[in-house]
Amino acid sequence: MDANDTYNSSLIPQHAHLQFIDQEQLKLTITPNPVEGTLQLSLKSSVPDEAQVLIYNSLGVLIKEVFITFNNGTSQFEIPVSNIHPGLYFLSIKGKIVNTTGRFIKR
Question: Taking every annotated instance into account, which residue ranges of this chain make up the domain Secretion system C-terminal sorting (predicted)?
Fold first, then answer.
């Protein structure tokens, strides 16, 4: 895994009137990776949404939760992680219609 890893996902409909979209319409980029102090998230989405960013350790324990709002297009977010222990972490973005995951290493 390097600093330019990109994770793709598709939208998961939560309501009957929503439809699946192409995977290219949602892209999560996590940099730097590995990270020391602040994680940079870039989320390119074809739909706006409000979501939770959930960070889990390698044992599946929830370590951090952050709420974000993003628009159609590319949105940037910074998440401080200097207070978590070094290791492998999993990141989940769960919104009303957007659901995607990624991983990163904390030095």
Answer: 32-103
